[in-house]
TrEMBL record:
It is found in: Cytoplasm. One of its GO terms (cellular component) is cytosol. The gene is rimP. This is Ribosome maturation factor RimP. The lineage of its organism: Bacteria, Pseudomonadati, Campylobacterota, Epsilonproteobacteria, Campylobacterales. PANTHER family: RIBOSOME MATURATION FACTOR RIMP. NCBIfam families: PRK14639.1. Keywords: Coiled coil, Cytoplasm, Ribosome biogenesis. Residues 3-81 form the Ribosome maturation factor RimP N-terminal domain. Residues 84-146 form the Ribosome maturation factor RimP C-terminal domain.
């Protein structure tokens, strides 16, 4: 089963998935985002988007469960401010603002310009261009200036 292809069928992009335990219940959570439009922008995710994907996945998961045992399926937006833990997360967040903490505990706020292999090209808020290696990043998340 290809989760990415199933998301595309609902005209969505897979951002991530996780299996969590909350209040003694197993939850298989799928995070999605809308694809880029012709202007290079993403529309927000609404309840109908999540329901559409859930309707596609439910009968498939009844036959081929993604996890063993009893679980609850949850389809959710990845959110405006989200954790970036994979190189693919950075690729899907190009042109967004990000807060990064490096392994050397340096804190950086910048815009993601591009991703090339393991290099993440950024423009700091004071307009300096820098490149970080993915492995030099301890943690990162997108943020929105309100």
């Amino acid at each position: 089963m290809n989760l990415e292809a199933l998301c595309k069928e609902a005209n969505l992009e897979l951002y991530d998935s996780e299996l969590v335990s909350e209040n003694g219940k197993k939850i298989y959570r799928i995070y999605v985002m809308n694809p880029l439009n012709e202007k290079g922008e993403r529309a927000g995710i609404n309840l109908d988007d999540c329901a559409r994907l859930s309707e596609i996945l439910s009968p498939i998961f009844d036959v081929e469960p993604p996890v063993s045992g009893e679980y609850f399926l949850e389809v959710s937006s990845c959110g405006l401010e989200r954790k970036l833990s994979k190189i693919e997360h950075f690729e899907k967040s190009i042109n967004e603002l990000v807060k990064i903490t490096t392994n050397e505990k340096e804190k950086i706020e910048a815009k993601i310009l591009s991703v090339e292999n393991e290099n993440i090209n950024l423009q700091t808020l004071d307009n300096k261009k820098i490149t970080l290696k993915f492995n030099d990043i301890k943690k990162a998340r997108t943020f929105v200036e309100w």
